[in-house]
Design goal:
34% helix, five-stranded mixed β-sheet, three-stranded antiparallel β-sheet, Immunoglobulin-like, alpha+beta, 152 residues
């Protein structure tokens, strides 16, 4: 009898723990990554959330979210951002039916330097013109070997 009672108590504790932990996970959405770096001005913010609830996504240039702007409202679990200039951007999310905001997600945008951009462009031009030269040489200027063939 004591063994039966002990097993039931253990299952009851496990059931209560599972209910409380799943409820706390869904209490507010959370970021999959809290810090991001972008060298192109584009990135994807993603979060874990209850699939049936809407969220609000806020963006600010200040960590205290003064002058924050709601940039998305909906049920998606990710949002793609592009066209961002160099700087720090701060994001937070919450369910639309809640007043509790998530922790901030911090994104640092730092584009490639102008020198590196010109280096990439020069390398691309070199490959392009080398390929073009090879194709032109093989197609137009290389002597044809078909003239010597044929039997007598």
């Amino acid at each position: 009898m004591a063994l039966f009672f002990r097993r039931n108590i253990i299952f009851l504790y496990l059931f209560i723990f599972a209910c409380l932990s799943s409820a706390s996970l869904l209490a507010s959405p959370s970021w999959t990554e809290k810090e991001l770096n972008s060298n192109g001005g584009y990135f994807v913010l993603s979060w874990k959330k209850d699939p049936d609830r809407k969220i609000e996504l806020q963006e600010s240039l200040f960590l205290d979210f003064s002058k924050a702007e709601i940039i998305y409202t909906g049920k998606d679990s990710a949002s793609a951002m592009s066209g961002k200039k160099n700087g720090m951007y701060y994001y937070r999310i919450r369910y639309t039916d809640s007043d509790s905001w998530s922790d901030a997600c911090i994104v640092q945008v730092e584009h490639h330097s102008l020198f590196k951009a010109f280096l990439f462009m020069t390398a691309g031009a070199l490959v392009f013109f080398s390929t073009l030269g090879l194709l032109l040489y093989e197609g137009f200027w290389k002597p044809s070997s078909e003239e010597g063939e044929g039997g007598s």
